[in-house]
Specification:
Elements: H1 2-52
Length: 62
């Protein structure tokens, strides 16, 4: 019984680092998605400004 209890203990403690790693990875993925969302909004504003001539960028040389 001593052997079986010692072999099951590391398996249980092995779950905690894996769970922590998954949580960290999830947070990193969410940060990437938030960054992509901001980039997408910025690109939409730039495209609108280029199409309409009104927006964040003004071409003074034209």
């Amino acid at each position: 019984m001593d052997v079986s209890s010692s072999t099951s203990a590391p398996a249980e403690t092995g779950k905690d680092p894996m769970k922590k790693a998954m949580e960290v990875q999830e947070q990193q993925v969410l940060k990437v998605l938030e960054g992509l969302e901001k980039q997408s909004k910025d690109m939409q504003e730039i495209n609108t400004a280029q199409k309409t001539g009104v927006g964040n960028s003004i071409d003074l040389l034209s």
